[in-house]
Write a structure and sequence with these properties.
The protein is an alpha/beta fold. The chain has one domain: Phosphoglycerate mutase-like (Rossmann fold). The protein has a 6-stranded mixed beta sheet with strand order 3-2-4-1-5-6, sandwiched between helices. Keywords: Signal. Pfam families: His_Phos_1 (PF00300). This is Histidine phosphatase family protein.
């Protein structure tokens, strides 16, 4: 029985790995969106003294998160994925994820990607603005959007891990989820 369970676990792991590679391969054709939850940043939410322009008041990437963000960019480059635009939440952990992966000059802050964890009243407006930006993208290359768990979940109903990405294909109605990718 244990041997069967181990074989099943190995098969499922192989399937998950294959599915990730398939999701990344779809980016090669361009016209897709990579929606990324920021890399590892210990804790939940933000401190009471949070200030958008002061990273010392925010929850930031750990060393592991910094390595994870760099690995994200490396993996896309290794796979020959052309990234034509990088949008990011204005929170430091999202900006740092984007900058470590794609370079300082490549990143544009985009307010609809800001976390609404502490202010759910902003959810609908931000989600709709992000959905419209996704639907409007038609390439070339890949649009990268770095954001937070609450934003990814509001858009896709997926609860991503830190550093996990969801591959989206824009459609006239918004988008279709193609797959999920981790960058560990």
């Amino acid at each position: 029985m244990l041997r069967i369970l181990l074989a099943l676990a190995m098969t499922l792991a192989s399937f998950a790995s294959l599915a990730q590679e398939d999701a990344i391969a779809t980016l090669e054709d361009g016209g897709k969106v990579l929606l990324i939850r920021h890399a590892r940043a210990p804790g939940t939410g933000d401190p009471d003294n949070f200030v958008i322009d002061d990273c010392s008041t925010q929850r930031n990437l750990s060393e592991e998160g910094r390595r994870q963000a760099a690995a994200l960019g490396d993996r896309l480059r290794t796979n020959g994925i052309e990234v034509t635009e990088v949008l990011s939440s204005r929170w430091c952990r999202a900006l740092d994820t984007a900058r470590l992966a794609f370079g300082d000059d490549a990143v544009t802050p985009f307010e609809p990607l800001d976390s609404f964890f502490g202010d759910r009243g902003r959810r609908d407006g931000q989600t709709e603005a992000a959905r419209q930006r996704i639907a409007a993208f038609d390439g070339p290359g890949t649009l990268v959007m770095v954001t937070h768990q609450v934003n990814v979940t509001a858009l896709t109903e997926i609860f991503p891990r830190e550093g996990e990405a969801v591959v989206l294909e824009p459609t006239s109605e918004g988008f279709e989820v193609i797959g999920r990718v981790t960058f560990d």
